[in-house]
């Protein structure tokens, strides 16, 4: 089956949707399909409508050599505007600034811009609702959190289909003496919570390694100095995949406490490496697959509470027990099952 995976993208930023899209393409090909990734424009603020039009007028009915394209799978706004007779949407998110992040976004703009953006928000809600209800044959949400947003803003029905861990050579080496934090350095990822929590730990033999790039770098460096943690926190920036996997394999546990995350790839990546996850009750999709006390700790998003979880998992018997349980849960998610679900309507009609 010829399948085009479509996601909208912006230059110089690789988000989770792009990583999931690339993984989906590789696994579609691995399971006998002929798949490619097609990136469509998202555009900056103020130019979103032209991006919707560009997606709507994108022709994915045939290949360049005239062969029929059998299916399209889109992942995020506004790629679900692409027209195709068999279009499945596996939604990562809509433009969050006009949905769950609206109040936060609105608080940072002028009164005149509030009026303009409120009008744009209303229009985008209508456009999204139309395309997600009328332009796709089936809508899957990548988490319960995303499903709830669809229902809250638009009363749009969907089924939950979690993405498995990105296909990588995950392994286990040891339960080391550091908490691993893999995240883009962005305010929504709340890496500062982990740093503040580390400073409050009773066990001062535990350190922290953070990997990722983003606008919060200087603020995090300043916080590390303010907390006198220069000897206990390493901020490595971008790392190659081999290094990333090695850090997962050697860490004590993983901390990932974003604000109201859509899904959160980190959860199953940690589980696949036999590592417990510490996350927060308001971290959205990140905590949906976590069982508190079994595969990690689900805590209040306050440094004191996170510090207690860090101290608890610093007992390596607990780290091992939770890591083994987490690993057993990761086996429940496979790309073979995911692909079969995404294409089940197509295969059942053939």
TrEMBL record:
The Glycosyl transferase family domain, residue ranges: 176-325
CDD domains: GT4_PimA-like
SUPFAM superfamilies recorded: UDP-Glycosyltransferase/glycogen phosphorylase
GO molecular function, one term: glycosyltransferase activity
Domain of life: Bacteria
Any single Pfam family the record assigns to this protein: Glycos_transf_1
Name of this chain's protein: Glycosyl transferase family 1 domain-containing protein
Lineage, opening ranks: Bacteria, Candidatus Fischeribacteriota
